[in-house]
Each structure stands twice: as structure tokens, then as C-alpha cells.
Amino acid sequence: MPHWLSLMVDSFWPLLYAGVVFTVPLTLLSFAGGLLLGFAVALARLFGPSPLVKVARFYVWFIRGTPLLVQLFVIFYGLPNIGIVLDAFPAALIGFTLNVGAYTSEVIRAAIASVPRGQWEAAYSIGMSWTQAMRRTILPQATGLAVPPLSNSFISLIKDTSLAAALTVPEIFQAAQRIASVTYEPFILYSETALIYLFFSSVLSSAQTRLEARFGRHSSPLGAAG
Amino acid sequence: MPTSTAKTGAAIRLTGVTKHFAGSATAAVHPTDLAIEAGEIHGIIGFSGAGKSTLLRLVNLLERPDAGLVEVGDDELSALPPLALRAARRRIGMIFQQFNLLHNLSVAENVAFPLRIAGDSPASIKARVAECLDYVGLSAKAAAYPGQLSGGQKQRVAIARALAPNPGVLLADEPTSALDPRTTQSILDVLADINQRFGVTVLLVTHEMSVVRRLCHRVSVMDEGRIVEQIDLRTGFTAPRSELARWLFASGEASPAEATQPATVAAATSAPATAPANTSAAVPANAAARAIVVTPANAPFREVYHA
Ligand SMILES: Nc1ncnc2c1ncn2[C@@H]1O[C@H](COP(=O)(O)OP(=O)(O)O)[C@@H](O)[C@H]1O
Ligand SMILES: [Mg+2]
Q: Does B268 touch chain A if contact means CB atoms closer than 8 Å?
């Protein structure tokens, strides 16, 4: 076996392990948390009282206007200065969740707002409450509109988790750096790392395609004049 | 289709209702009184922006009045707490220009929805949905989705959905304005039939005089947030007094030929079979009034009220 190939094979399992144990959980957990947060922020901005709207707007403005890496550094390296010490993984999880929450709140807000006003009126006119209208007719339609952009955010997130390496989270990229620093073969290792990210994002993209097909079925905006 | 019993007295009564949208210079609806008789088909006509839709939406409180009283049947809607208001809304059907079917639901699910919200049993919902879809002639489309229907079919589904809870009152906001003339006629026929057969009171917003002529018993002419005139199309005729009403009544989507067409001819083309042939007796002689013909579509009303 040529040297480069045995190097790749040797490092394959540690990299895959880092992906399965750190990258994937970090991605899934922060995306789930970010979605919940984004949903709450979207509702606050659309329907909340004005102070809440202001807080929500500030949050989105702040997160979208600052680099993710800087946000992660503030949380992990900065907060201990004011007495809040977090382990690397929870710090990364909080950072990614806040970041995902800001971006997805904009997507969810736009999707809910783009469900035609007539759908609310029809729902109210047949005696639904706000909650019923939201759950039974507005959200199902908004979901169809939100799934494609949300799954794009999800794919971006998988790749963005490589920034957690800078917080010492032993995810894929961190593992790669560690191996590269002892083997002195950065070209081979980082190329392999790229392939491993490619593998994870491809697997998750195909899940995305299936999700879109499922939610897009009867709620395409083209069917809107109904 | 079970019949709803015809009510007595005013079916809808608005007393001094006003609506001023935040940020606009004038009120959309100035203090307005309006009483709709039970069993009546009442039109609200006026130009775009006159406040017709706002007035209609005040009836089921889709729009909250700034002041005034909204009564529908025995309920004072404007005083009801949320839960009771939602229950009251189930007794008030509503249809829209853009149909507003719930896109994520099938035709049958759309019609079933008000009944499910009301907590009816699955068996009775199923029966009622079948009955209502049969009434509007769309049983075959029960499993279709709104996106797969034509405009006329969508409006029929919307009518079936509005009728499902057996409402005493139906609100219609430009229900035919997005439809071609033939489909318009078929929808107007359905509305007339609902009124005649089930005694449902209909309050209908339109900007088309032809719709008023073909369907309404009375019409309120609205301009800049006020009802400027009310005209009764049943009792022979009172000539329109306001300039707007005169203009509306004299102008015409209706050609002179159509305007003076005897009801017997119209009956042969588009009328329900029950229309008596002598309904044109009341056509008055003056020019403005010539525009109004008691069409077969509103002829059944004469039976209800004067027989
Ligand atoms: N939700 C709303 N917010 C602000 N202004 C509104 C709203 N709905 C209607 N209006 C205004 O109120 C006036 C009457 O509107 P509307 O009742 O829709 O008229 P019409 O149905 O006769 O065309 C218009 O000037 C319109 O712009
Ligand atoms: Mg209108």
C-alpha cells in the first residue's frame, strides 16, 4: 500500500469517529434548538408586543451582523471573564444554536407572513381560534415554503461546525488538525477531511430532498389562489 | 340537506358601527346603521375603497368596530367573549372573492373543518360533508385539492364549507368578481337557491350592478364609508335619489336589451324552474328604473315574502 493511502486509511476511522460522536450531534442538537428558538423569535416579531419585537429584532441584527467565529470566542473564551465558564461542547452548542436561531427566524417569519391573509380570514370565519388557525392551516402551509431554505441552513451548519475546532471541541476538523500535526501530511489529511464533510453533507442533503418532497406536496405557493 | 328554519325579525343589525384603521386619514366606515331582514338577500354596492368589505367584515367581527353594536340573530356579537364569538361565527357562513379554501386540505377536509372545530362526531361530519358537496355538485371532487379546481369549483366548495354548519346568515364578499360570466351566473343561482330553499339571509358585497339586479332584494349604496342610499328592488320601485345610486343604476354592464328583457325570456335561459313567469309586472316606466328588472333569480323571494 502506498504511503499516502495507508495514511488515509489510518486516519479515516478517527475522522469518522469525530464526525459521528461530535460533528453530527453538534449539528443536530444546535439545529433543533435553533429551529425552536427561530420559531419563537419569528412569532415574537410577527405577533408579539412591541418591547418583545424590539428584543427579537436586536437579537437577529446582532447575530447576523457579527462573525460566527467571534460569537463562539465570546462565549467560550470571553464569558469566563465575567464568571461564566462553559465546557467546549456546550459553549459550541449554545453558539451554534443562537446563530441558527437568528437566521431561521427570518426564514420562518417570511414563510408565515407569506401565507395569504385570506387563509387567516377563512380560518377565523369558520370559528377557529388563533392557535387552531396557526396549527391547522397557517403552519402547514408555511412549512412548505420554509423547508427548502431551512434545509440549506442545515447543510451550511454541518460545515460551520468545523469552527468548533477553535474551541477545542474534538470534531472532524480538530481531529484532522491533530493528526496532521504529527504526520506532517496536511495535503492528504485535509483533502480527506474535505471528503468526509462531503460525505456527511451529501447524506443529509438527500434527507433534505425527501423532506422537501414530503412537505412541498400540496402547499406550493403556485397553488395559492385557492 | 337539512333546512335551517327561517328566522323572524332582523337577521343582522348594525347600530352606529364605525371603523377607523390606524394611520389612515379618514374612517373606512363612518357611524353606520344597517338592518337586514331575515330571509333577505341584501347587496352592498359601491366603488372600490368605499368600505364595503370592511362593513361586511364587521358583521362577523373579522374587523373589530371602534364603536357601535353588532347583532346577528339573537347574539350581540360585539359583546361576546372569544369562545362564544367563535361559536357564533359558526352560525355565520362567509365566502370570498379569492375563495380562501385552505390550501393544505382536500375539498372534503375543507368542508369538514368547521364541523370538526365544532366537535361534531366523525359519522355526522362525514354525512354532512357528503350532503353539502352533493348540493353544490362536487361529490366527485371530494378528494381533490384546491389547487386542482377551477375558480367556479373553488367557490362551490367555499359555499359548501360555509353551509356545512347550517348557518342562518351568509356573508359574501365579491363572490363572483374573479369568475367568468357563465360561472358567475351559476354561483348566483346557487346563492339564490340557498336563500330560497334554506331561508339563509345573504349579505353580499359587489361592485357589479348586474349582480345586484339578478340576486338582491334590497341594496345599500355605499360611498366613502357611508351608506348613502338604500333601495328596495322588490316593491315596484323607488327611483334612486343619490347621484351615485342614479349613476350605478343607469350605467350599465347591462345592455338596454338585457335591462328591458322580460323575465319570461330570462327564465328560459338561466332561471330556476320555479320562477313564475309574470315577475316583470313591476318594471316601471321611467328611464332610470328601466335598468332594474325583477329577474327570476330574485323572483322566488316574492313568494317567500308576499305569498
Ligand atoms: N386592514 C386594513 N388596514 C388599513 N386600511 C384598510 C384595511 N382594510 C381596508 N382598509 C382601507 O379602508 C378603506 C375601505 O376598504 P374596503 O372596505 O376594502 O373597501 P371596498 O371593499 O369597498 O373596496 C380603504 O381605504 C382601504 O384602504
Ligand atoms: Mg372589497
A: no
Please state which architecture CATH assigns to domain A3-225.
Orthogonal Bundle (1.10)
For residue A223, the chain B residues in CB contact (below 8 A) are: 103, 145-147
pLDDT at residue B252, rounded to an integer:
54
B56-82 per-position pLDDT tens digit: 999 999 999 999 999 999 899 999 999
> Regarding beta strands B201-206 and B75-76, do their DSSP bridges make them parallel or antiparallel, or are they unpaired?
unpaired
**Of the candidates A125, A222, A223, which has its C-beta nearest B62's C-beta?**
A125
Top-confidence residue, B276 or A74? A74
Q: Which of B105, B117, B145 sits opposite A132 (nearest CB)?
A: B117
Residue B259 belongs to a domain with what CATH number?
A: 3.40.50.300
Residues of chain B found within 8 Å of residue A118, distances taken between Cβ atoms: 96, 98-100
Whole-angstrom Cα distance, residue A118 to residue B178?
Answer: 14
Of B87, B95, B10, B102, nearest to A120 (Cα)?
Answer: B102
Nearest CA in chain B to A139: B104
Q: Which of residues 127-166 of A touch B (CB under 8 A)?
A: 127-129, 132, 136-137, 140-141, 144
Domain boundaries, chain A: 3-225
Gap between the Cα atoms of B269 and A77, Å rounded: 83
Say how many domains are in chain B: 1
User: What is the model's pTM?
Assistant: 0.80
All three cell numbers of B52 = 364595503
- Is residue B286 in some structural domain? yes
What one-character-per-residue DSSP string does chain A give? --HHHHHHHHHHHHHHHHIIIIIHHHHHHHHHHHHHHHHHHHHHHHHS-HHHHHHHHHHHHHHHTS-HHHHHHIIIIIGGGGT----HHHHHHHHHHHHHHHHHHHHHHHHHHTS-HHHHHHHHHTT--HHHHIIIIIHHHHHHHHHHHHHHHHHHHHHHGGGGGGGT--SHHHHHHHHHHHH--HHHHHHHHHHHHHHHHHHHHHHHHHHHHHHHSS--GGG---
Q: What is the pLDDT of residues B84-93, one digit of tens each?
A: 999 999 999 9
Which chain B residue has its CA at the smallest distance from A123's CA? B102
Report chain B residues whose CB lies below 8 A from the CB of A129.
82, 86
| Torsion-angle region of B258 (φ positive above 0: left; ψ -120 to 50: alpha; else: beta) | alpha
- Model pLDDT, residue A222: 39
Please give the residue range of the domain that contains residue B290. 10-21+28-306
- From B115, which residue of chain A is nearest by alpha-carbon distance? A126
Does residue B4 lie in a domain region?
A: no
| pLDDT tens string B202-225 | 999 999 999 999 999 999 999 999
B117 CB within 8 Å of a chain A CB: yes
Q: What parts of chain A have a pLDDT lower than 50?
A: 218-226
B69 in contact with chain A, both atoms CB, cutoff 8 A: no
